[in-house]
């Protein structure tokens, strides 16, 4: 018996938690990604799409951050930004060509980007996904951008 009368397994983990983790080891945490729900901008201006995250692991050299975009009314999502091995890879052929800027810093748990020269075609949903091996389990986070006339 452990504290508060909770039955303990052979490895000293409360028995109710052992089923949640492989081989009876202590449970692991998932990575958590956060974005605002909505962001607003005006045509011709710029907007920061904030993405922060929490990981139970040290920030790995293998951390990756990916942004996807799904245009308003579209079913398809496209990859517009990827950060891996300390290097940002920015869309250089698509709709965000020469309009996107990496302002994040993974060491500060920040995966933010800036979209410059906003246009109505930028209306849609942006998804930030972070993987920090071995912490790769978790949900991405979405922010919807609304672009209005000045």
Describe the structure.
This protein is mostly beta strands. It has two domains: 1-28, no CATH class; 31-148, Sandwich (Immunoglobulin-like), CATH 2.60.40.10. The protein is 3% helix and 37% strand. It has one helix at residues 15-18, and strands at 32-34, 38-42, 47-49, 52-54, 64-71, 78-84, 87-90, 100-102, 113-115, 124-131, 141-148. The strands form three sheets. The protein has a six-stranded mixed sheet, with no helix packed on it. A three-stranded antiparallel sheet has the order 3-9-8, with no helix packed on it. A hairpin with a 2-residue loop joins β6 and β7. Belongs to the myelin P0 protein family. One of its GO terms (cellular component) is plasma membrane. Its main location: membrane.
């Amino acid at each position: 018996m452990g504290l508060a009368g909770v039955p303990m397994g052979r490895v000293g983990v409360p028995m109710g938690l052992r089923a949640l983790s492989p081989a009876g080891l202590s449970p692991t945490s998932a990575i958590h990604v956060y974005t605002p729900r909505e962001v607003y901008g005006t045509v011709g201006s710029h907007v920061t799409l904030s993405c922060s995250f929490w990981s139970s692991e040290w920030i790995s050299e293998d951390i990756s951050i990916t942004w996807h975009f799904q245009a308003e009314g579209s079913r398809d999502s496209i990859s517009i930004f990827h950060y891996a091995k300390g290097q940002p890879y920015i869309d250089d052929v698509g709709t965000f060509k020469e309009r996107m800027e990496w302002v994040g810093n993974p060491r500060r748990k920040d995966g933010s980007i800036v979209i410059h020269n906003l246009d109505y075609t930028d209306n849609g949903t942006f998804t930030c996904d972070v993987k920090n091996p071995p912490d790769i389990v978790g949900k991405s986070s979405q922010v919807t951008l609304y672009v209005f006339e000045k």
